[in-house]
Input
Amino acid sequence: MEYVRLGQSGLKVSRLCLGTMNMGTPQWRPWIFDEQKSEPIVRHALEAGVNFIDLADFYSAGVGEEVVGRILGRLARREEIVVTTKVGYDMGAYQNAGGHSRKHVLDGIDASLRRLGMDYVDVYMLHYFDTAPPVEEAMGALDEIVRSGKARYIGVSTMYTWQLAKIVQICERHGWHKPINMQLQLNLAYREEEREMMPYCAEPARESPMLDRSHSRGPHDRTQSRRTLQPKVDRCDRCVAACGEHRGNGVVAAEPRELRGRGLARESEASPVE
Output
């Protein structure tokens, strides 16, 4: 098994992660494995060198955490595995049963730890981007969870790149712990995340491209930035000019100045992801 650092953190995880949505109780979904059927799967993964186990409170409405927590308690030493879980989806039919309000996030970590039978999780993740509360509310609560020792790191899942950039920007502004990972959908049929999310996450130190750092640069740095950007702008101009030749075929090209104003004068090559 190969092991890599998770994002820009020092946390080392197996390159393969064991997902556990199919473990819990078939009363939740008919295709779910119960504890007896789940244990051989977990054992095989651990014996193969997998140390990275991903859960969510939503899986089997909490039973998934109970089942996997008991199995891990029998098969592994806590310090030798990396356990993640997620919060956000409704855990009941009452008010504040889901979402990323401060109340639900703080209640959620306590409930997950009870079900898992653990004192902490290694990564506590937002299951999606909740548009209802202010981002500061959710990220402030997550920062408090890390500082309290109930989670070692925080992470996020299933959102647009601009939403992740907003989260990172707010965390940097307040000096809060930032997400170390983005869990996203990527398979042979769905490759959209290669367009923006993966290049964004691969940036050094995961600095948000939304942040204007020009005030911290000297005159030479700003000049160098313009020199670096200009060839990309020139290539964009040529591309737009070429597209403009096809206006008669129904292809409408945006003007170069419009592209510059929207920050779109960038190469479309995807950066490698560690």
